[in-house]
Amino acid sequence: MIISQEIEEKQILINDLEINYKISGKGQPVLILHGWGGSSDSWVQVQKILAEKELKIIVPDFPGFGKSRTPSKAWNVDSYVEWINGFIAEISKAYGEPIEPFFLLGHSFGGRISIKFAAKYPGEIKALILCSSAGIKPKGEINKKIFYYLARIGDYLFSLKPLLRFKDGARNKFYTLIRKKDYLKAEGVMRETIKNVLDEDLSDFLPKIKNKTLIVWGKLDRMVPIKYAYIMKEKIPNSQLIVLPKAGHSPQLDLPEKLAEIINQFIET
Question: Which end of the chain is more exposed for a tag (fewer CB within 10 A), N or C?
Fold first, then answer.
C-alpha cells in the first residue's frame, strides 16, 4: 500500500504477529518508535522530510497498536526490546541488506523501549534520539491507585441517567488532570501490558547508555514534564538536550519541520 509518493506501507510477520510498518528513502537507516496509543501515522510528516535527506526511515506500528496485531498475552519492556531485534532481522532479510547499525529514535513510550534497547545492545545502534521520552517512574505510586479508583467511581456516577450526557467531557478532563489517560483507557491484554510497563523504572539504565544521545523535549509537555529531560541529560553520559519552547508532548505533530531539521543535523554530525 502506498501512503504517498515517498512512503510505502507494508506488513511483515514477526514471531507469528503480523506487523505493519512504513518505510521510505535510501541511505542510513533510522528506526522510529512511536508513543503509547499512537502509530506510525503520527510520524508521516517527519518521515517525508527525513526521507529526502539520504536516510532510510522505518516506522513500525508496535504490536498492539495501529494496524499491527495484538499479542495474545501481556508484554513488558523487555518483550518490546527483544521484538525490535526480531523486527530488524526480518527487515534486513526482506530488503537483502543489513539494517544495523541504525539510528534509533523513540518518542514517549517508544523512548522507554529505546532506553533499554540502547543500554542492552549499544553495538546495534549508531546513536540514540529520545523525544519526550518516558522511562523514569514518578514517585508516589499511592496516587496512581487513588486516581484509578476515583476514575472508577466517576465512571459509575456519570453513567447515571441525569449525568450521562456529561460523561465524555468529564472523563476527558479527568484524564488530562491526572495524566493517566493511556493507563485508564487501555483494555484487555494492553491494559495488563501498560501496567507492566509503568511498573518498571529505567533510571538505572540511563548511565549505561554509551551511544551519543540527543534528547528533544517540548517545553509545554504536560504528559512527561520537562524536568525529566534534565534528569536524563544529567544521567546519560554522552548526551545533549534541545528544548522546543512552543512544543508539547508531541513535537512531531506540533513542529514537524523543526524536529526533522534537528534530527537531520544530529545525524549528520
Answer: C
Chain-centre distance for alpha carbon 31? 11
Hey, how many other C-beta atoms are within 10 angstroms of the C-beta on 149? Answer: 10
> Residue 185 above 80 pLDDT?
no
Note whether residue 1 is domain-resident.
no
- Strands lying side by side in the sheet with 213-218: 7-14, 17-24, 55-60, 28-33, 102-107, 125-131, 213-218, 239-244
∠ Cα 266 128 109 (to 5°)? 120
Range of the domain at 19: 7-137+200-268
What's the whole-model pTM score?
0.84
Residue 98 burial (CB count, 10 A) = 13
Q: Number of helices (H) and strands (E), helices first, in the chain? A: 10, 8
Q: What is the pLDDT of residue 2?
A: 45
Q: pLDDT grade, residue 177 (50/70/90)?
A: very low
Angle subtended at Cα 209 by Cα 208 and Cα 215, rounded to the nearest 5 degrees: 135
HSE toward the beta carbon, residue 150, CA cutoff 13 A: 13
Distance of CA 151 to the CA centre of its chain: 25
Instruction: Give the length of the chain.
Output: 269
Distance CA 269, CA 248 (A): 26
Residues 65 and 154 occupy one common structural domain: no
Nearest 10 degrees: Cα torsion 140, 80, 113, 122: 130
Q: Report the SS3 class of residue 142.
A: helix
The three-state secondary structure class of 128 is strand
